[in-house]
Write a structure and sequence with these properties.
5-stranded parallel β-sheet, alpha/beta, binds phosphoric acid mono(formamide)ester, globular, 13% strand, 38% helix
């Protein structure tokens, strides 16, 4: 069955059927990573370019490993080692890369909307590897795969999403994906990081114990100090006193609860070390599953020919660069 999308830009674009297609394919790719020779010829002769304007360990490494396990050629660029340092705009950089005829471009950028901006202008699939505080679709897909692996389903589960919800692209993508697959969402954090408009996403509370009570899944978020232009709480110590996931808080959840964290973790700030490394933690499974999900995404997008309907979808994507990009371009 052909995947109905040319790009992977945001989760709200995907239907339950699309998400299930990615997860089912990821299940089949998981097995490849357990073989002595972890490589299949599926994307031999294809070229995948990654362009990271923000730091990354997991996403960048797992896209590269995923592409190489599918036998694609992989070119990795970071803004620090590219001509962006000499003032080249994102669009010029991307146009030059596109002129080298890659079969997909993966982009992480600090400006929300940067991948959409490129999708409208370049003639190859664009994969969003995290755009500002907007979305991180492959993270949501690997989280959904991890939950499904441990719980057998997503429908009917209660997922507590805890922490810096306001600045979290992981939270945004996960809320779309998990609700789409039938889970109920509870958002937990300080009132300043849970503005009223987020109530449309799920129930909200600023009481950690209440928020995780009887939860099937606890999804911790990293406290994103680098994205906060002002003080949303008095001190990091005070934040951790109320919102650090400790064994005491975990005891409020269901006995078979699983705990996720996208990484990188601030140990002792949003999650206690004994919880991060404890029996309910599936954090390393998330990392393993990230490779299978990215193999599935690359397989579905790189092998898919462009069709007429894609042109109409692309014409509806943003015309103008996000403000942050226009400032840099100027
Ligand atoms: N989860 C995640 O996006 O981690 P990195 O920033 O290390 O890629």
């Amino acid at each position: 069955m052909a995947f109905p999308h040319r790009h992977l830009l945001y989760m709200a674009d995907l239907s339950p059927k699309d998400i299930t297609q990615v997860l089912d394919l990821s299940d089949t790719f998981l097995e490849i990573s357990t073989r002595p020779i972890k490589k299949v010829p599926t994307l031999r002769g294809k070229t995948v370019v990654s362009l990271f304007y923000e730091a990354s360990t997991r996403t960048r490494a797992s896209f590269e490993i995923a592409a190489k396990r599918l036998s694609a050629d992989f070119v990795s660029l970071s803004s620090a080692a590219s001509s962006a340092m000499k003032g080249e705009t994102l669009l010029d950089t991307a146009r030059n890369l596109a002129a080298m005829r890659p079969d997909a471009i993966i982009i992480r950028h600090g400006a929300a909307g940067a991948p959409h901006f490129l999708a409208r202008r370049l003639d190859c699939p664009i994969i969003n590897a995290g755009d500002g505080a907007h979305e991180h679709p492959t993270q949501a897909l690997l989280d959904a795969l991890t939950i499904r692996e441990h719980k057998g389903r997503l429908d009917g589960l209660t997922v507590a999403v805890v922490g810096d919800v306001l600045h979290s692209r992981v939270a945004r993508s996960n809320v779309f994906a998990l609700k789409c697959l039938g889970a109920s969402i509870r958002l937990v954090g300080p009132p300043t990081l849970l503005p009223p408009e987020l109530r449309a996403w799920g129930d909200t509370t600023s009481d950690l114990h209440e928020g995780v009570r009887d939860a099937d899944v606890i999804m911790m978020l990293r406290l994103q100090l680098e994205r906060q232009g002002k003080n949303f709480f008095p001190t990091v110590d005070e934040y951790s006193r109320y919102f650090c996931l400790t064994e005491g808080a975990v005891a409020q959840a269901k006995p078979d609860v699983i705990i996720l964290h996208p990484g990188p973790m601030n140990r002792g700030v949003e999650i206690a070390s004994d919880v991060a490394d404890g029996p309910y933690s599936v954090i390393m499974n998330q990392v393993t599953n990230g490779i299978a999900v990215r193999m599935a995404v690359l397989y579905l997008l790189v092998n898919r020919p462009k069709v007429k309907a894609d042109v109409e979808v692309e014409s509806r994507l943003p015309q103008r660069a996000p403000r942050q990009l226009r400032r840099r371009a100027g």
